[in-house]
Design brief:
It is built from 13 helices and seven strands. By secondary structure, it is an alpha/beta fold. The chain has a seven-stranded mixed sheet with strand order 3-4-2-5-1-6-7, with helices on both faces. It is globular.
């Protein structure tokens, strides 16, 4: 059975796309899982970071509009299959006005669901119709956040949106956890935000992942080379941390996998 995970945070700059990329690549590379990554962010960063041309290919926008089949929009990378996006997707709020528009993505995914172990969805930094489509189809949400006070401010509104989706669209939607990125345990602020994040997580019936993603320039460099952080800087702190994070995701989603491929 396919497990669908959406990474979400209405605040930008928290490492959401980096975490999406690392999760998709890690599941495939270290656990031999068949993974489809979907970029629902009009900025198109996920596809770009994995080395794809996002301007001259079919995108998730074409799929949602119904002008291209999902099978034809899927591209293959060294790490996983992916459906890219670009700036045209930013018009979704105005264009997708049909009844049950919250289920456009769910309907589009139906033909390929049985082809994958995991589907990883990178959402835009906003609570809009694209984000709601991801919530409506996902089994789990992961919330990346930086150790900054401002990262905490939007979580109340996020909780309200999750509760609304559970009530109206997807009763089984689960928040798998909050993952702290750009983390420096030596700072008092990081420790304080971690404690506050744990309190917020408990309010939404979730937790903070045991793993924190330490900060490093390697995370920023990897997308420029079209490589995952594991290939670009395999011994860097973020690479090691993301490996542990992916292992936690495997455990929390209940997948019975023999173990990490060395």
């Amino acid at each position: 059975m396919t497990t669908i995970i959406a990474l979400t945070n209405q605040k930008g700059g928290v490492g959401k796309t980096t975490t999406s990329s690392a999760l998709a690549a890690g599941l495939s590379t270290f656990y031999d899982q068949k993974v489809l990554a979907i970029d629902l962010d009009p900025q198109g960063s996920l596809g770009f970071s994995l080395g794809l041309d996002i301007e001259n290919s079919s995108t998730i926008y074409d799929v949602l509009k119904g002008t291209v089949s999902i099978q034809d929009a899927i591209q293959t990378t060294d790490y996983c299959d992916i459906i890219t996006s670009n700036i045209l997707l930013s018009s979704a709020e105005l264009e997708f006005t049909s009844a049950e528009r919250e289920f456009c993505l769910k309907r589009a995914l139906t033909p390929v669901l049985d082809n994958y172990d995991f589907i990883v969805i990178d959402t835009p930094p906003a609570l809009n119709i694209l984000t709601i489509n991801a919530y409506a189809v996902a089994n789990h949400l992961i919330i990346p956040m930086a150790p900054e006070i401002l990262s905490l401010l939007g979580l109340t509104q996020l909780k309200e949106t999750i509760d609304s989706v559970r009530e109206k669209l997807n009763p089984s939607l689960n928040v798998l956890g909050l993952i702290l990125t750009k983390y420096n345990k030596r700072t008092l602020l990081a420790r304080e935000v971690k404690e506050m994040a744990e309190n917020i997580a408990s309010q939404i019936g979730s937790c903070v992942f045991d793993t924190q993603i330490r900060t490093s320039v390697s995370v920023a460099e990897a997308p420029a080379h079209g490589l995952s952080v594991y290939d670009h800087a395999p011994r860097s702190n973020p690479s090691l941390d993301y490996k542990d994070f992916v292992e936690e995701v495997i455990d929390k989603t209940g997948h019975s996998i023999a173990g990490r491929i060395q």
